[in-house]
Amino acid sequence: MTALLAVWFLPERASDIAREVDALFYGLLVLCGIIAIGVCAAVIVFCLRYRQGSNATRQAEQKTIPLEITWSAIPLVIFIALFIWAGAVYFHMSKPPDNATEIHVVGKQWMWKIQHPTGRREINEIHLLINQPVKLLMTSQDVIHDVFVPAFRTKQDVLPGRYTIEWFTPIKTGDYHLFCAEYCGDGHSRMGGWVHVMAPDAYAKWLADTSTTESVVAAGARLFQARGCAGCHGPNATVHAPPLNGIFGHPVALSTGKTVIADEQYIHDSILQPKKDIVAGYPDNLMPTYQGQLGEEEVMELIGYIKALGSTSGGVP
Amino acid sequence: MNAIATPQAPPQPPSHEPSYLAVENTVRSWLLTTDHKRIGILYMISITLFFLVGGAAATLMRLNLLTPQGALVTSTTYNKLFTIHGVIMVWFFLIPSVPTVIGNFVLPMMLGARDVAFPRLNLASWYLFIGGGAFALWAIIAGGVDTGWTFYTPYSSTYANGHVIAMATGIFIAGFGSIATGLNFIVTVHKMRAPGLTWHRLPLFVWSMYSTSVILVLATPVLAITLVLMALERAFGIGIFDPAIGGDPLLFQHLFWFYSHPAVYIMILPGMGVVSEIIACFSRKAVFGYYFVAYSSVAIAVLGFVVWGHHMFVSSQSIYAGMVFSILSFLVSIPSAIKVFNWTATLYRGSIWFQTPFLYVLGFIGLFTIGGLTGLFLAALAVDVHLTDTYFVIAHFHYIMVGGMVMAYLGGLHYWWPKISGRMYPELLAKLSALFIFAGFNLTFFPQFILGYLGMPRRYHAYAPEFQVLNVLSTAGASILAIGYFLPLAYFLWSLRYGKVAGPNPWQATGLEWTTESPPPEHNFTVVPIVTEPPYAYDPVAAEEALAAKREQREPAYVR
Question: A171 partner at 20 to 30 Å CA-CA among A61, A76, B342, B466?
Fold first, then answer.
């Protein structure tokens, strides 16, 4: 029985954020428990005491205003405090640290396709190193999905045509459920698998046990050549296209006069829907669309490569 | 001896007219009636049938979830079942329940009116409802829809198979019935009040129906537009929501919840009105803090429009938007809390009479309190991230909608049944079934809170084995709940013929509806009532004295 209670009320807590979420959850549970028990106790006591025929004092008229103010103001103060607490944890959840390992996730009906920075691919499984922050860069090939790892207490929708981010730091080795939490059709309840959090030696062994030789950046570089990107964006290109070195994370002036930051979404859209944002000073028919020619995973590899261009400020390898 | 309660107007002189039920009893007379009471009955019959359809779907789902593999039905069937359950229960049972059945029946009478402002529009509302229902049922019979009641794009507009457009058309048409009902009630409350019935003499049920009607009129058109856009994308490939053809999938969620969150209040405010009526009558005391209870309904209706984004904390909307929606969601819970506190305080120093309607109200207060408090977990951003789209959410909104609204609907049916039918229901059996419903409900849905916290996602046809124990408990509870729901169906029908004759005011209640005969004559009142009293002029002291006097009569003092 106690084991059952432990499983029910103390589920696995395998990320650093899980502690903060659980603290908030139990805080709410105690507070709401007190309110619920208080209301129920008052109702039961009144029902017994003032039941028809009992010897209690009755009264038709009562003063209401002081009570009304009390029971409106106290919840208001408590709710604002709860909002601030919960908002702070949410803010923490939304901002990945700079040293997080970036893992690419593509959802499709009904599987998760994972790619590690080393280039290693997995389906419906993610192997992680303990205590290493991880940032999932996610998109969907079809409908909306959602990466949900209950043991990490995190969840984030995965949308088509848009990148979303989910991050966590696993702090406990073990195997944890990976669920799709946004209804996505027939195979929704099958669209999941496992997250394996591993100790450093086991993780190193897992990493070594691979036939993948091409990292994400290398795969992106290969695609950059093979798909003809280099012909216009490369250092020796004859066509006048915007240079990409050092562009990632920096502002880009658009022909509309607006300025955007060249993030993952911007580069994704520039590849698939090039007419959406035109860089100032360039014609709007220069870049062909790669919609339907590049999969979401390939686009992510290209983005990985362009990011690397930014950090090394080197040319095309 | 003092009166237990002072009605808002003196009892009506006898009408010498046949009751609304006896006027003419042909099928034609029922299908073409413009009598608000008969239209209420038409709605009652129709939503009961829809409840059976939605309940059957739920039964199959719960049976399927007895085993982790989901052995009873295929995943395709399961997905269609939860879509049927959601669509039918939300649009064809809960939203019409209290407003169109109890609202239609008693609202005009509470105002001292002979009918609603637009009686023919009222009948048209029912035909729109039935027309929409026919589309929905056709969509189900023709093969079903598997989008869930939320119709999230681009799944619904591009990827789903099945009769999505037919189902959406059904909801679209029924929605116009809702809009017309809302409009009708608003005009009726403004224009048809009896002489002396000022706004602050209105029963609280009228306040809550008025607030609900405002939401119906303002929010439902947004749903209609959203469904049309979804259907346009599905039928003609016009890119609105699907990013592959230039749309934005989040736009759909914003539009959908802009309607559907206020719709949650359509599904609870009328129930709150019922609770206020019943709690005053059976504690023989005016509702504590009338103004606060009345205006909290208005506050809920207004604030309810600005919290839709709390359904989208993990949808990739901006985190700052999330913060705004979170604080607003906390704020909207305050008027609900005020109501619960006021109802509780109403019991203090009352003279409490434990009849079935009151038992339902006690159930409502307990379950709505749990439902409301668990809403705080979902308003709290970081906790919502973990709990959203899990069974915690399922449990939370069932506590509000079934534990709250269905309890209130049943309580209201028992309370006004003598007025509707002229007969009393069997009290003991009714108390028993209220107990079954309360116990069955908790056993069904409480385990789902734990399931959600443990991480079981909603809309899962099959699940991880460690969730089985709680799922079995939930299914066991559902079977008790089912018995509890069938009992009233049986004894209400029985009472039509065999129930004790009720008389005009069996509860000695104060509302104008109780000053006329049971069942009322076609035009409700023989003379126009002139209102001289605030509502709920109950006197607990007098009630006790009357009771003591009655006992005295039965057993002389020396026996005691």
Answer: B466
Q: Is residue B322 part of a domain?
A: yes
Give me the architecture of the A216-312 domain, per CATH: Orthogonal Bundle (1.10)
**Contact criterion met (CB < 8 Å) for B152 and A87:** no
Measured between beta carbons, the chain A residues lying within 8 angstroms of B388 are 155, 181
Own/partner contacts of A29-33, CB < 8 Å, gap of 24 or more, are: A31/A78, A31/A82, A32/B373, A32/B374, A32/B376, A32/B377
- A113: amino acid identity, one letter: K
Q: Which amino acid is at A214?
A: E
Rounded to two decimals, the ipTM of the complex is: 0.91
Least Cα separation, residue B23 to chain A (angstroms): 40
Residue of A nearest to B290 (CA): A64
Cis peptide before B519 (omega within 30 of 0): yes
How many structural domains does chain B have? 1
CB proximity list for B196: less than 8 A, separation 6 or greater: B530, B531, B532
Residues of chain A with CATH 1.10.760.10: 216-312
User: By CA distance, what is A45's nearest residue in B?
Assistant: B348
Q: Cβ neighbours of residue A90 under 8 Å, at least 6 residues apart?
A: B313, B319, B322, B323, B326, B381, B382, B385
Q: How far does the CA of residue A22 sit from the closest CA of chain B (Å)? A: 8
A131 conformational bin, left if phi > 0, alpha if psi -120 to 50, beta if neither: left
Closest-CA residue of B relative to A275 is B246
**Closest alpha carbon within chain A to B157:** A143
For residue B396, being part of any structural domain is answered with yes
Instruction: Calculate ∠ Cα B459-B460-B462, nearest 5°.
Output: 160
Q: Mean pLDDT, to the nearest integer, of B182-210?
A: 97
Residue B22 belongs to a domain: no
* Whether the predicted pLDDT of B555 surpasses 90: no
Specify if B85 maps to a domain. Answer: yes
In this complex, do A50 and B455 lie within 8 Å of one another by their Cβ atoms? no
Choose among A155, A95, A143: nearest CA to B393.
A155
Nearest CB to A83 within list B146, B330, B548: B330
| Distant-in-sequence, close-in-space partners of B43: CB < 8 Å, separation ≥ 6 | B96, B100, B101, B104, B126, B129
For A31-74, write each residue's pLDDT tens digit. Answer: 999 999 999 999 999 999 999 989 989 988 778 899 999 999 99
* Residues 6 or more apart whose Cβ sits within 8 Å of residue B243: A159, A160, A161, A162, B154, B249
Task: Please state which CATH number belongs to domain A10-51+96-209.
Answer: 2.60.40.420
* Enclosing domain of residue B553: 5-15+30-559
- Mention every residue, 6+ apart, whose C-beta is less than 8 A from residue B27: none
Q: B290 to chain A nearest CA, in Å? A: 9
Strands A251-253 and A259-261: antiparallel
Select from B365, B366, B380 the Cβ nearest to the Cβ of A28: B380
Q: Which one of A39, A138, A180 would you mutate to disrupt binding with B, by most B Cβ within 10 Å of its Cβ?
A: A39
By Cβ distance, the residue of B389, B453, B463 closest to A155 is B389
What amino acid occupies position B223? L
φ, ψ of residue A111 in degrees (nearest 5): -155, 160
Q: For position A292, what pLDDT does the model report?
A: 83
Do the beta carbons of residue B308 and residue B253 sit within 8 Å? no
Residue of A51, A70, A77, A186 to mutate, interface with B, max B Cβ within 10 Å: A186
